[in-house]
């Protein structure tokens, strides 16, 4: 029997920070056999990434790694000098990180990035390295490798970029491919393609270690799943066993989160809040929005789905009055909202709110939560009741955005949005940056706000899963046009347009066998 | 890419025109008649007055005078210093080269030293930088002179006859630049080394030094280039003191003399030249940016 590639027993990783010590990983044990696909699943902060990175000695600055056994490629890695680690990196293990836009050096061509691995791990000549880089690009199915190799990461689409990143991780012919959230920054259809590529690597005999917050993403690929929470391994087992009957309540919660849950509403749609007719927006000679019409009624949640570049964010900007339409009209609460000076829009502004994908950049980093929410409240009203409504206690009042978790931040963003009692909230990818388990909580919160206040929501997302769970009606956008619309039930159960069907097929799902 | 270059060159021409026009306005606004202003402290004879009126077309309409001034300036003809009895271009031309030599040498020395500090002594950079920045250049100059010229006799005390004469002044001016630049570089390196691409690079088995020089350095260069171009502009203006300390010829000396003796044609030329230097530096900086960061090449 061949020895395992990785054998870890009682792994503890501690970060000694200037003012405190953080135990990121506590007593984790696992093995990775050759040819296997193992997944570590958990929320951000669970220690899953740092566990994986410690296998190549990259746990991070200030990290102290202790273990009863830490065997990598049959060697005791506890006594490794920097040189020993360098030999393993790229050669024994290749690392694929989340977002290739920043995980590949933005100032170097992707060809140079791939060839760099060969520079370190082989004695091949320059021209041989270039040829090998082209072959690798071809191997991960990047079309026109010659042209792509000479391009920079920002010139490639998200999917091609991620493929190039995978090619660079494969270049040293590693025995183990570590993929840390390899699809999290991608649209569902692109995610499906990258997962297919990883499955192909697996069938070619590569050993994979996948890290993800989303059980659904890894469930098709992984033989075994390790579930981590707060630095501990709470459960592990074959994917099949975990999905059919998890022991730990946390695992069951993750499974529930990944399966999704439809939130029905008893609220009847009221009068029209916002209406856009025949919207068209042209930049230069490119029409990014073409003949889009949408009506949103009181108490209604309208989903707007499509891939990046489909024009959905531009539609949001048009509705919000940030961008003037080239033609067409927007009306809000019965009044003209487009083609009028901002002065005319201003009295209506409080009635129309916005929630962005990344609240960290939507807040002033030097403002406390108290000040952020108070600014949006009518004069004299207290901040505490609004925070209570979004499930936050008084302990966050004097914290700064950076000191909050992603879920807490998005709750503050929601508190700020509901504070002026708007009739419509436009949410642009409000849960895309969050862990699946936190996504569920935020979706519950949004559904509750609609239920209680009758606030209408325009919910923009590339993730059909979350739209299905929340929206009453759905509009599907492709290339600036609405290609299909209808009730959630109709669109998701009997999609008419081919594009909708493709989007639906790409949604990762759990096959939970009872 | 080509349009981006053309746009920057066009903006440069615009700045030069504005500088020339501002200089011309200053001439008109000078007390007394324009002829008085041009003569300055020089000899005042009817012959010279006639010569000035003829050269500056002062008997023609104001618009023609102005356009003629621009036309001549565009051709490098900056008039005549009646005080020195020589064409302004000759006065400045002979002094420009030593100053540029000094400025370029100081900038190159500063950059190289900053790179050495930032790459090989990253932890010490902030201390070294602070010391270098807070020491006045003339003090550095005097100390260097007394040690290496007077005591050891390795370098000439003054003048600009050999390369050796350039060494001490260049070091004097380059050290403070190296101090600031090293700090900017170090900050950029620290930030770049925390980026995900640095993790990817380490995961390829690169040495930390290679991650630094092959990846992070280019990212750190962006702010450093801005810093360097700014200090190069200051260098040109700051040579006065150093030229005094090391007894070198140069633009600084010429400017001081021209201002003291109200030699307005020379002063005007210095103003236009300073603008030209800044335009060139800024254009080069912008182009360097395009060269370093491909993301900026989209127009």
How would you describe the overall organization of this protein?
The complex is a heterodimer of chains A (514) and B (299). With 514 residues, chain A is of the alpha/beta class. Chain A has three domains: 1-92 and 215-259, 3-Layer(aba) Sandwich (Rossmann fold), CATH 3.40.50; 272-351 and 423-506, P-loop containing nucleotide triphosphate hydrolases (Rossmann fold), CATH 3.40.50.300; 362-421. Chain A has 21 helices and 21 strands. Chain B has 299 residues and is an all-alpha fold. Chain B has two domains: 1-83 and 265-299, no CATH class; 96-260, MetI-like (MetI-like fold). Chain B has helices at 2-29, 34-39, 46-55, 62-74, 88-120, 125-134, 137-151, 164-193, 196-203, 208-245, 251-260, 264-292; strands spanning 80-81, 86-87. In chain B, strands 1-2 form a two-stranded antiparallel sheet. The radius of gyration of chain B is 23 Å and the shape is flat. Chain A binds chain B through residues 53, 56, 58, 82, 86-91, 93-95, 97-99, 102-108, 113, 116-117, 120-121, 152, 154-155, 165, 168-169, 171-172, and chain B through 195-197, 199-208, 214-215, 218-219, 292-295. Chain A: It comes from Actinoplanes cyaneus.
């Amino acid at each position: 029997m061949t020895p395992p590639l990785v054998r870890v027993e009682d792994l503890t990783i501690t970060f000694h920070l200037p003012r405190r010590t953080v135990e990121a990983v506590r007593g984790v044990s696992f093995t990775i056999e050759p040819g296997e696909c193992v997944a570590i699943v958990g929320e951000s902060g669970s220690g899953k990434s740092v566990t994986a990175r410690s296998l190549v000695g990259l746990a991070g600055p200030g990290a102290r790694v202790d273990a009863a056994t830490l065997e990598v490629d049959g060697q005791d890695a506890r006594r490794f000098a920097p040189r020993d680690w360098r030999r393993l990196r790229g050669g024994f293990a290749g690392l694929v990180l989340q977002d290739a836009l920043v995980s590949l050096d933005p100032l170097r061509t992707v060809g140079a990035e791939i060839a760099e691995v060969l520079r370190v791990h082989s004695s091949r000549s320059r021209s041989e390295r270039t040829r090998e880089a082209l072959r690798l690009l071809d191997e991960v199915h990047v079309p026109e490798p010659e042209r792509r190799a000479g391009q920079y990461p920002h010139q490639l689409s998200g999917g091609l970029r991620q493929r190039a990143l995978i090619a660079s991780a494969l270049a040293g012919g590693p025995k183990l491919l570590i993929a840390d959230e390899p699809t999290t920054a991608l649209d569902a259809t692109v995610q499906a393609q990258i997962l297919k590529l990883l499955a192909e690597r697996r069938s070619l005999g590569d050993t994979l270690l996948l890290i993800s917050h989303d059980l659904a993403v890894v469930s098709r690929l992984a033989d075994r799943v390790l579930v981590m929470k707060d630095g501990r391994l709470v459960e592990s087992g074959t994917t099949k066993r975990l999905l059919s009957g998890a022991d730990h309540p946390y695992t069951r919660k993750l499974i529930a989160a990944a399966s999704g849950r439809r939130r029905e509403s008893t609220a009847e749609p009221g009068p029209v809040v916002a209406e856009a007719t025949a919207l068209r927006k042209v930049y230069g000679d490119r029409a990014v929005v073409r003949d889009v019409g949408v009506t949103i009624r009181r108490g209604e949640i309208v989903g707007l789905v499509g891939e990046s570049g489909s024009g959905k964010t531009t539609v949001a900007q048009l509705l919000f009055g940030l961008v003037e339409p080239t033609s067409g009209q927007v009306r809000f609460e019965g009044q003209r909202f487009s083609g009028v000076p901002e002065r005319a829009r201003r009295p209506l502004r409080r009635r129309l709110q916005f929630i962005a994908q990344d609240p960290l950049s939507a807040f002033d980093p030097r403002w406390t939560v108290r000040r952020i929410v108070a600014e949006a409240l009518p004069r004299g009203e207290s901040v505490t009741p609004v925070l209570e409504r979004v499930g936050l206690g008084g302990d966050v009042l004097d914290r700064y955005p950076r000191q909050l978790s992603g879920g807490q931040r998005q709750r503050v963003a929601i508190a700020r949005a509901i504070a002026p009692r708007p009739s419509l909230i436009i949410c642009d990818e409000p849960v895309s940056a969050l862990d699946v388990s936190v996504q569920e909580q935020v979706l519950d919160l949004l559904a509750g706000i609609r239920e209680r206040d009758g606030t209408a929501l325009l919910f923009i997302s590339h993730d059909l899963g979350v739209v299905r769970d929340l929206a009453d009606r759905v509009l599907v956008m492709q290339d600036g046009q609405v290609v299909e619309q209808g009730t959630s039930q109709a669109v998701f159960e009997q999609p008419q347009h081919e594009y909708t069907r493709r989007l639906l097929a790409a949604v990762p799902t759990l096959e939970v066998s009872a | 890419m080509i349009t981006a270059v053309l746009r920057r060159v066009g903006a440069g021409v615009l700045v030069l025109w504005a500088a020339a026009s501002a200089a011309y306005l200053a001439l008109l606004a000078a007390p007394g008649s324009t002829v008085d202003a041009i003569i300055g402290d020089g000899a005042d004879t009817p012959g010279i007055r006639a010569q000035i009126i003829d050269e500056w077309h002062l008997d023609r309409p104001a618009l023609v005078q102005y356009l003629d001034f621009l036309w001549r300036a565009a051709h490098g003809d900056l008039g005549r210093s009646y005080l020195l009895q020589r064409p302004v271009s000759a006065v400045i031309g002979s002094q420009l080269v030593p100053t540029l030599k000094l400025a370029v040498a100081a900038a190159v020395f500063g950059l190289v030293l900053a790179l050495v500090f930032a790459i090989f002594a990253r932890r010490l950079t902030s201390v070294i930088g602070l010391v270098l920045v807070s020491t006045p250049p003339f003090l550095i100059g005097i100390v260097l002179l007394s040690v290496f010229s007077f005591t050891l006799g390795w370098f000439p005390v003054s003048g600009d006859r050999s390369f050796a004469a350039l060494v001490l002044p260049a070091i004097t001016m380059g050290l403070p630049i190296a101090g600031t630049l090293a700090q900017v570089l170090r900050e950029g390196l620290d930030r770049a080394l925390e980026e995900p691409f640095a993790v990817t690079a380490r995961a390829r088995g690169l040495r930390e030094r290679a991650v630094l020089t092959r990846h992070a350095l280019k990212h750190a260069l962006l702010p450093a280039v801005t810093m360097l171009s700014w200090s190069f502009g200051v260098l040109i203006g700051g040579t006065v003191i150093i030229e005094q300390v090391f007894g070198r010829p140069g633009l600084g000396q010429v400017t001081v003399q021209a201002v003291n003796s109200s030699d307005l044609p020379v002063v005007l030329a210095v103003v236009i030249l300073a603008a030209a230097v800044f335009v060139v530096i800024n254009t080069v900086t912008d182009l360097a940016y395009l060269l370093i960061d491909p993301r900026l090449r989209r127009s």
